Amino acid sequence: MRHRVKKTGLRKSKGHVKADLRNLVTNLFKHGKMQTTKKRAKLVSAIAEKVISNIKHKSDREAIRFLQQYITEEAVSKKLLEMVKNQYQEKTSGYTSIYNLGIRVGDGAAKAIIQLN
Questions:
Q1: Residue 21: which of 57, 59, 71, 93 has the closest Cα?
Q2: Per-residue pLDDT for 8 more than 80?
Q3: Assigned CATH class of 14-116
């Protein structure tokens, strides 16, 4: 039975999925937007929304500790803290947007662009 078992749909081991998503989230906050598959974009969007909303309500020390779970580069976490203080104080949700790009030629995967608002 598979009751209450969450699947990501990425067909990788749990550790590989976690490392992959950490790298994708770090790159999203580093560059502001990126191109990836639609499934990965949806997973990254959920994590990015969670990170930004939690940082808004925490003190700086708590936010830095929280960011260590999701961000792999220190410069990116500093940039994110400044960005949240300046840009996202009025917003309550909708920090990311996903735009469809079509089908990838090699394997037929659905491509998408994810960007910060």
A1: 71
A2: no
A3: alpha beta
Residue among 41, 40, 50 nearest 63 (CA): 50
Contact 64, 77 (CB under 8 A): yes
Q: Calculate the CA 41 to chain-centre distance.
A: 8
- How big is the CA angle at 31 (ends 65 and 69), to the nearest 5 degrees? 20
**What is the residue whose two structure tokens read 């990788």?**
12
Domain positions in the chain are 14-116
pLDDT at 90: 86
Give the tens place of pLDDT for each residue, 35-76.
Answer: 999 999 999 999 999 999 999 999 989 999 999 999 999 999
Q: How far apart are CA 107 and CA 65, in angstroms?
A: 39
Q: What global pTM score does this model have?
A: 0.88
Q: Take residue 76 and report the two structure tokens written for it.
A: 């990116």
53, two tokens: 């909303």
Q: Is residue 16 helix, strand or coil?
A: helix
**Model pLDDT for residues 103-112, shown as the tens digit of each residue:** 999 999 999 9
